[in-house]
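Q: Please design a sequence for this.
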């Protein structure tokens, strides 16, 4: 079964940091581009960060996290990370990672329908 596993979520105070991890126990991530998404209660799933596959070095961020979040990957560890700094209460959501075929145009990186395999998500709560 093809699936991803997210970890690293939790409760953090405003201004704090968390690092999320995304790994694939049963397949290699290095062929795929990877996106991070989040979904807050009552809201649509939102694309927040993207990293191209091992052949590229491209990354994108949605405006609300630009400068605070950093996406990176370690193909040796078969893991993609999302470092989240200066967290705000509005960052509270379930965070998901997903794989994307690298042949797709990167201009649509933020669209969930362009991704194939998803994890179950990890909860991030930012609250004092």
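A: Design:
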């Amino acid at each position: 079964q093809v699936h991803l596993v997210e970890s690293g979520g939790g409760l953090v105070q405003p201004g704090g940091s968390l690092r999320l991890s995304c790994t694939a126990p049963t397949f290699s991530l290095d062929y795929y581009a990877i996106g991070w998404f989040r979904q807050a209660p009552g809201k649509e799933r939102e694309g927040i960060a993207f990293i191209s596959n091992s052949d590229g070095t491209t990354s994108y961020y949605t405006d609300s996290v630009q400068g605070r979040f950093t996406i990176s990957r370690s193909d040796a560890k078969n893991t993609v990370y999302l470092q989240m700094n200066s967290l705000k209460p509005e960052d509270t959501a379930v965070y998901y990672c997903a794989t994307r075929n690298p042949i797709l145009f990167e201009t649509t990186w933020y669209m969930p329908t362009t991704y194939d395999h998803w994890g179950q998500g990890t909860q991030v709560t930012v609250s004092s």
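Q: Thanks. Anything notable?
A: The first strand starts at residue 5 and ends at 7. Strands lie at 5-7, 10-12, 18-23, 33-39, 46-51, 59-61, 69-74, 79-84, 93-100, 122-126.
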